[in-house]
Amino acid sequence: MFMRVDKLQTELPKPTKADPNAASALQELLGGKFGEMSTLNNYMFQSFNFRNKHKLKPFHSLVAGITAEELGHVELVTTGINMVAAGPDPDRGTDVSKGPYADMSDMRNAASFLHAGGAAMVADSNFQPWNGTFVFSTGNLVLDTLHNFFLECGARMHKLRVYETLTEDNKTGREVCAYLLVRGSVHAHAYALALKKLTGVAMEKMLPVPNIELGNIPECQKYLDEGSHRRLYRWSPTDFAEMAGIWGNGEQALPGDPPGELEVVDGMPDGGKMPDLEGAAGAFTPDYRPEEIFEIATKLYKKM
Ligand code: MN
Ligand code: MN
User: What gap in Å lies between CA 277 and CA 284, rounded to an integer?
Assistant: First the structure.
C-alpha cells in the first residue's frame, strides 16, 4: 500500500519568468527513457514481481523503499515543469480574440499548451510518450540490480545535461535538477553496494558516473551540507528497515562527497511546501469562469 502526503520532497523556488522551452528540456527528466517515470516503474514492478522476498529482505526493502521515493520524484519534476512553463503570472487574460497564446505556436512543444494547457505531459523533451518498454524486470536479482545501477548512472547523465541547458535565472528548474542529482547519486551508490553484497564486485569504485562530483553544482551544496547524500529513507513507519544491511554496516559516503557513514532514516524527509499552481482562465484551467466551480467547492468543504 502507499500513503500520500501533500508536500513536495523539497521546496522549489518560485519562477521569475515563463519559459515553456526550458520546461520542455525538463520533460526529459520526467518521461525520458532515463526519467523519473522509468525509475519509478522499474523499481515498482521489480518490487511487485520479487520472488523469495522473505529470504532476501535487504534487497527487496531497498528496491521497495526507493520505489516510494521515485513516486515523489515524478511529483517533484511534474510540479517543476508546470511552474517553469507558466511562470509567475500564468493568466494572460481572458479576451480570446486577442491571441493571448500566439507565441505558443512557436514553442518546441505547442501540444504542452494545446493539449495540456501548459502542464507537464508523460513524454520526453521531444514529446515522445513514455512507454512500458522502458521497464526491465526479469526477476533475476543480479541482472535487475545491475540494470538499476545503469539506469541511475544514465539518469545522472541526463540530469547533468538538462542542468547545463538552464540559465542561472531559472532557479526552479535548477533546483529540480540539483535535488534529483543528489538523490539519484544515492540510488546509484545503493545499487552498487547491493551488487557488491551479491557478487563481491566493488561497483561503487566506478562512481560517480559521469565523473563529476556533486559539489560542482552550486544548488547541490545545501543538500550535501545536510547529509542527504548519505541517507536512504524507509518511507514507512513499520517496514523496510532491512535495507540497512546494504546502506549501512559501516559503508561510507563516496570519496568526492562530504565524508560520513551511510544511514537509513525512519519514515520520510521533512519535505517542502506544495505550491498551489495558479489557474489561467484564458487557457480554461480550471475553467474560463472558475468562480462558479470555486463556489461549488467552497460549499462542499464547508460541510465537513
Ligand atoms: Mn529519481
Ligand atoms: Mn533514483
Answer: 14
Domain at 20-303: CATH code: 1.20.1260.10
Q: Report CA(228)–ligand 1 centroid distance (Å).
A: 14
The amino acid occupying position 139 is G
Tens digits of residue pLDDT in 218-229: 999 999 999 999
**Å from CA of 8 to ligand 1 middle:** 13
19 CB-near residues (< 8 Å, 6+ apart): 84, 85, 87, 170, 173
Domain ranges within the chain, ordered by starting residue = 20-303
**Chain mean position to CA 174:** 13
Cell numbers 522551452 label which residue?
A: 21
Q: Closest ligand to 153 CA?
A: 2
218 class by beta-carbon count within 10 Å (0-12 exposed, 13-18 middle, 19+ buried): exposed
Q: Is 235 helix (H, G, I), strand (E, B) or coil?
A: coil
Spacing, Cα 184 to ligand 2 middle (Å): 4
Residue 134: DSSP 8-state = G
Q: What is the pTM of this model?
A: 0.97
